[in-house]
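Re: weekly structure request thread

Next one in the queue (112 aa):
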Amino acid sequence: MKLITAIIKPFRMDDVRAALSDIGVQGITTTEVKGFGRQKGHTELYRGAEYVVDFLPKVKLEIAVADDQVEPTIEAIIKAASTGKIGDGKIFVSALEQVIRIRTGETGEEAI
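Done, posted below.
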């Protein structure tokens, strides 16, 4: 089992959710976050004053999947989240040692 963590642009969230649903991914956790990478923020003008916005709004997705669903999930996220411009985001994949469904006590892939 793997935990896929993706950081994407907020306006791409609906497209990513639909793409994941189409391939059968059932559970997604989202968090509104702020951050920057190579994009390094931007300058905005507000009431005549210029200021730097260092941290840009992003959405963090956390998706637990079985090993055989890792590649299709990554491909769906890339296809749906990509705009071709800087700041599209990143995907991280890490191993999951154990998953437990609290309600039923199911463990492993059955709990996903």
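The radius of gyration is 17 Å. The beta strands are 2-8, 29-35, 42-46, 49-53, 56-65, 89-95.
Next request, please.
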